Amino acid sequence: MQPSLRSEIAPFYVMEVMRAAEQRERDGHEVLHLEVGQPSTSAPRVALDAAHSALEDDKLGYTGATGMVELRQRLSGWYHDRYGLAIDADRIVVTTGASGSCVLAFLALFDHGQRVGVLEPGYPCYRNDLLAFGAEVVAIPVGHETKFRPTLEQLSEQLPLDGLVLASPSNPTGTVLPREDLAAITAWARHNDVRLVVDEIYHGITFNGEAPSALEFSSETVVFNSFSKYFSMTGWRLGWVVAPPSMVGALERLAQSLTISAPTISQRAALAAFDATDELDGHVDRYRRNREVVLAGLVNAGFDQMAPADGGFYAWVDVGEIVERLSITSRELCALWLTELGIAVTPGVDFDQQRGDRFVRFSYAGATEDMTEAMRRLAAWTKQQLPRTEA
User: Fold this and answer.
1) Where does the chain show beta strands of DSSP type E?
2) What pTM value is reported for the model?
C-alpha cells in the first residue's frame, strides 16, 4: 500500500538515537543519556498522589474538549501569578502535550499553501507538522552573530508570510528572546498581517532571569506550553494553548474530532502539580549545575562554539572541525560516540536541514553525575582526535 504524500516528512532523528541507545542497553552496555529533552525526574509527588486518588474515586471519563474547567482556571491563575497577566480561562485549550498544541494551532491558523516562517536551528516538528498539513515552510536561518535570534530585517526579507513560529527558550539553542525583541517582533507581525505562534514549553527553566511571555504584547498571539518540561511530566502527554477569543471555537472543534479530550488522569495530576513549585524549582537548580558541568566540559573537550543556552536544558554545539577531520556527518559522529563512548547525543540535522551536519545537541536534563562522566569521556576521546586540545 502506498503511503500518502503528506507522510513523506523527515524522520525525527532523536527518536532513532533513542532506539539505538535502548538497543545498546538491551545488549548489556551502559549508556549515558544526553540525547532526549526529558527530565530524569518523575512527576511531582503531589501529582502522583492526585493520580492515585483519581484511579480510586473517578471513572476517568472524557472531559470537555477544551479540558477540565478547574485546570483551565488554575492555568489562568498561573499566568496572573507568574507574569502578571489577565488571561481568561476561556482562552485556554488543554491538549495532548505541546505536540497536540502544534497540531491544533497549525490546523486552525493556516490553510494549504500558506507560507509560514520557522527558524533554523529549531524544533523539527514545527516544520514537519506544517509540511504534513500542506503549508509552505520558509526556513529563516539564525546564528551566532545574532545570538540565534531573528532580526526584523531577516524576517522582512521573507515577506509575504502568513505565519511565523518562534520558541523562547528555544530548542535546541536555549535562546531566550528578551522583552524588547518580543515586543518588536509582535509589532512587526501585526503591521505585516503575520499570525504569530510562540512555543513557551521551556518557561520556568531559565538561568538569567525569567523569560517574558509573548502574551504580554498581544492578545492575538497564539502561545502554547506543556507540563512536560518544568513540571517534569513528559509521559503524561498534557499541554495547553492560549489563543485569541476568535480562535477558541476552531481549536475546540478540531479537538473534538482529533482527540475528543486530553487524558483525564493527566489533567487531575496536573491540577495538583501547581502546588509543587519548590520541588520543581529544585529540578531547575540541578539543570543549572548540569549546564555548568556540560558547558565547561565541552570547552575542555575542544568544543567552544556554542549557542547561548540561557534556557531549557540543551547545548547546541558546533562540531565542524571534528566531522571535517574524520570526513563524517554529525549523524555518523553521534553513532560513533554511542558505540565508542556510550554517550547518546542528537545530531544537528534534526534541527537545521542546511547546516545541521556540523552541529550536535547535548541534553543536560539528566543526573549530574552522568553529565560529569560524559564530559570526562568526551575530553579523553577528543584529546586523541584533536591533538592540540587540552583535555
Assistant:
1) 32-33, 92-95, 115-120, 136-141, 163-167, 195-199, 222-226, 239-242, 314-318, 343-344, 346-347, 359-363
2) 0.94
